[in-house]
């Protein structure tokens, strides 16, 4: 199984950006933990981050036929980007939406998620562990479908 792990704007600033909300772990540390967990689970991962919506759209489009699914933390684009939703719907790959913070307990505008409309699961408020749980969901889904 091969997964594309996408991260949206400002996630490159983990550890610096509002550590009381997003934690003190750095983006590099996040990537290392994802890679270790994926390797232990027998999953290949390609981890990418961009602050630019169009770049994320391009990566989603390029994922068609190359990946078995997408783990996606769209960050602020969660609440604004119909373009990302449309790209996910177009490639029709299974997607798990991930958020470090518990968006259900935050500002009103964060209650809207366009990405959720194209995701089979959402993991929110579990910090870095949420990414690992997303990988585990894909592994379970593959086993349930008889693919692993």
Helix and strand element order:
EHHEHEHEEH
| Coarse structural class | alpha/beta
Low-confidence stretches: none
Please provide the count of β strands: 5
Q: What characterizes the major β-sheet?
A: 5 strands, parallel
CATH class: Alpha Beta
The percentage of residues in β strands lies in 15-25%
What is the overall number of helices? 5
Going across the major beta sheet, what is the strand order? 2-1-3-4-5
Shape: globular
The CATH architecture classification is 3-Layer(aba) Sandwich
CATH topology: Rossmann fold
How far apart are the termini?
A: 8 Å
The CATH homologous superfamily is called Dehydroquinase, class II
- Provide mean pLDDT, rounded: 91
The domain count comes to 1
Percent helix, as a range, is: 25-40%
The whole-angstrom Rg is 14 Å
In short:
The protein has 148 residues and is of the alpha/beta class.
Report on the structure:
The chain has 148 residues and is an alpha/beta fold. It has one domain (2-144): Dehydroquinase, class II (Rossmann fold, 3-Layer(aba) Sandwich). Helices cover 38% and strands 18% of the residues. It has helices at residues 19-22, 27-41, 53-63, 82-91, 129-144; strands at 2-7, 44-49, 69-73, 95-99, 121-124. A 5-stranded parallel sheet has the order 2-1-3-4-5, sandwiched between helices. α3 packs parallel to α4.
Question: Any descriptors?
Answer:
148 residues, alpha/beta, 5 helices, 5 strands, 38% helix
